[in-house]
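Work Package 3 (structural annotation) set out to generate three-dimensional models for the target panel prioritized at the project kickoff. During this period the team completed the workflow that converts sequence records into discrete structure tokens, so that structures can be stored uniformly alongside our sequence database. As a representative example, we reproduce one entry of 482 residues exactly as it appears in the project archive.
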Amino acid sequence: MSPAEASVVTDDLLRENLRQLVNQRKYDLWFHTVRVVDVQPGEVVLSLGNRFLLDWIRTYYTEVLDRAVEATWGEPREWRLVVAESEQTAGGATNGELHEPLEAEASADTRPDPTPPVHVEPQRSAQDEVAWKNQSFFLHHSDVVLNDKYTFENFVVGPSNSLAHAAAYAVADAPAGSYNPLFLHGNVGLGKTHLLQAICHKAMASGRALKVLYLSSETFVNQFIVAVEKGELSQFRYRYRNVDVLLIDDIHLLANKERTQEEFFHTFNTLYHDQRQIVLSSDSPPSEIPSLRERLISRFKWGLVAEIEPPGFETRLAILRRKARDRDFLIPEDVLNYLAEHIDRNIRELEGAVTKVVGYAQLIHRTIDLDLARKALGQAGDSSATRMTGIDRILEVVCAQFDVRPSDLGGRKRTQSVAFPRQVCMYLARRLTPLSLEEIGVRIGGRDHSTVLYAVNKVRDRAATDSRFAQLMNELEAKCRA
């Protein structure tokens, strides 16, 4: 094997070992340009595409590189980083600060075979470089991995979500411009997370240097608790108040958390007055989040509050066509129409229906048609609804029985016409789902477990003494199980 061939083998082995130590996204960001330049007893010299990569790896990935080098050469070795030759030279001069000289050349008799030329990666444009650095910041500070499909281009717009889509697009195009804060709300599975991630994708690719931080409300709460316990509030505040765009999913989970609400209030004020963009999502509008302080409610309303409603038939059909096309599924138009007519709650159920129908057809080796779709979804004959289980089904049944909206049950209203159906929901959820008391409370407006336990006991006690009420509960249970 020639020295050039050996170098290629070593490059491949080193990169493979790095892939074993970091995930693909981190490898693509930091290690994709790494090359073996020189190998000496006890030391290896590695090149990288630019100075930014070199500094970042020296700062954050020395242990990873130690382990990768040891795995590649079978023993621990010192390593030295340099910048690829194309990045060192400007007007024919070598930048000695970036590329330290190798060991003095050996004599002609003992000189090793020439080192193969360093592979040069295609140069990024200035805009691509900024976008790349934006993504680097996001990767190392956000707790969410972005879904590449959650972009504005892949979002199906209809009357139910057009305002939310337009506002999200405007925010991504000009952060802290027209809509600050932007508050998106709606039931689960309607596209709130898709829009938040689309904002991240577009903002980071805009060509402007932007620090984008996207996380769940639960992460904010947990990190605040840890910061208090360790006495690291200054670091916590710096992390959240030194960004250009802050996006928080499920902000309604701040309910009943007084100290965390206080901290978020000050974080909100700092970002807002520094003209930094804030984007929040919730299952409920600000005024219906239980136990949320009034001053937070008022601030959430300073910008734009946009609701995402369940999609209409035309939008559902467009979504189904998009899902089928994206996955290269050939689904007849009458089947798509059938699914759009019978699945009307949220987008996740639409996507699940497409997957189930295609999977069932592949399993039994049949062409997709209307009869197969009915069987795949567990529907015999002309049954008019997909089978739904869990708390979403319970909410649907109870809302229909008592003529209330899901947002009422999750809201702050305590009138008897709302409080009683809410208690029935909690009781049925406890009987029919594996959810804990705390999980039920979170799903129904962010109540605590003691509130759920009180509701369960109250409904159960009434059913034990009121036969007509007990019959009603049995009927509701049967509908939920149907």
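The mean pLDDT is 80.
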